[in-house]
Each structure stands twice: as C-alpha cells, then as structure tokens.
Specification:
alpha+beta, 8 helices, seven-stranded antiparallel beta sheet, 11% strand
Length: 247
C-alpha cells in the first residue's frame, strides 16, 4: 500500500544501520580470533548488539546535527571497540577525546561547503550551456579539493584514535604528517587508476607499511603475565560483512 511505504522505510533504515553496526563488530570478533602472536590468541569480547545500538544512536545525532557532531561518534565507537579487545588475558584500552578534533572538523566542514558551493555554481552554468570541458574539469576539481580537505581531518583523526590506545602499560603513539598523508593517498589513487584496480593488494600493503612506520610504542609488556584468551571466536567468517560488502 503506497500510503504506508514511508513508514516501512522509516523502520527498515534504522534496522539496516543496526545490522551494519553488528556486522562491523562481528568482523572484529572473527579477525581477532584469527590473530596469534607467540601462541597467544587475540579476542574481541561479545558486544555486537551494543555496537549496533550505538550505530543507530549516533546516526540519529549525525542526522540531527547535519554532520557537525562527526568527531564525537567516531571517538566513542572507536573506544567501544578497543575497550573490548583482548590479547590473551591482556586488555586494550582507548580514551580518544573528540574535543581536540572539533575545531579541525568545523574548519573542514566550512571548507567543504565553500568547495561544493563555489564549484557547484560553476557546474550549474556549465550544464545549462552544455560546456562539457568545464563539467569534466569541475568534477575533477571537486574530487581533488575535497580529498585534500578531508585528508587534513583524517590525518588528525588517525593521530588521535591510535594515540589513545594502551595495552597492559604500553602506550601507542601515532604522528602522521598531513602533507605526507595527502601525497601518499594521491600515489595510491594513481596506482589504482593505472592498474584498473589490479594494484589494490599492493596499495593495502603500502598502507600497512606506512602505519607501521609512523607508529611508536612506549613501555614494556610483561609477557609472562599474559595467559591464553578464553574466547575462541566463531568457526566461520562473518556472513553479515560479506552480505553488506563492508569487509
């Protein structure tokens, strides 16, 4: 019935967000259970339902604030996942704070509006006059400028999130330079374009290497005090992740 279609959508959309949240968390459960070091198994303790509810909660806040609240849910959901990570009997903790990111995000937010508004008006005139070169140039400019603007925020976000993690007295520190991140992302994009996507595994390896190079670890772990994890993890891969293609 057409008159109830909006209500069905209203119900299904939050359910979809809820399931995506569960899928993301369950993927961490599977991956951590397959992570071993020195015979000790990693683990992600049960908490997928809670993460699903957080996904709905913060999606609503994101919608009501038109995205202005973005740093807050990103930090809260990161803390939730990290606080439930284990390596053997060792416990991970994260205390990422959103407050230092808000200034950067607001500047990024305004910059995105300026970029879209400025180049968007140019594109409207180009569409009216059917000026194909200007249309193509406009889309390229939007892609490049938006990538640079977002990279500035993403760099600070990664620095904040990763540097908030501790494990049994060990502190992580991550300091990525903004320009290095921008040029690195540009190179990866060019690799994907010129290899028609075939270079994706190489790009993933480059990202892992970069993050390892920029990561510093302070402190010392007493490995003799860490025992095997009681969590065994699922026997099979996470079907929801595969269904939503969010690997």
């Amino acid at each position: 019935m057409p008159e109830i279609a909006p209500f069905i959508t209203f119900i299904l959309y939050p359910l979809f967000i809820f399931l995506i949240g569960i899928a993301i968390y369950r993927a961490q459960v599977y991956r951590m259970s397959r992570t071993y070091w020195r015979g000790i198994r990693g683990a992600q303790t049960p908490g997928s339902m809670g993460y699903g509810w957080l996904a709905i909660k913060y999606f609503v806040l994101y919608f009501l604030t038109l995205g202005l609240i973005t740093p807050y849910p990103l930090c809260k959901m990161w803390n939730y996942i990290m606080d439930n990570k284990r390596f053997g009997s060792g416990v991970f903790k994260a205390d990422a704070k959103a407050k230092p990111l808000f200034k950067i995000w607001l500047m990024t937010y305004v910059a995105m509006i300026v970029v879209i508004g400025g180049i968007g008006s140019l594109l409207i005139d180009a569409f009216v006059s059917q000026n194909i070169p200007i249309i193509i140039t406009g889309y390229i400019l939007i892609f490049v400028t938006m990538s640079i603007v977002l990279a500035w925020f993403q760099t600070h976000l990664y620095n904040t999130l990763i540097s908030s993690v501790t494990f049994e007295g060990v502190k992580l520190n991550f300091e990525m330079d903004v320009m290095k991140y921008i040029f690195f992302s540009l190179k990866n994009t060019l690799i994907l374009i010129f290899t028609i996507g075939l270079g994706a595994p190489f790009v993933m390896q480059r990202w892992v290497k970069l993050f390892c190079e920029e990561l510093s670890i302070y402190g010392k772990i007493d490995f003799n005090g860490i025992s095997q994890s009681p969590e065994t993890g699922p026997e099979f891969g996470e079907g929801l992740v595969e269904a939503f293609d969010i690997g």
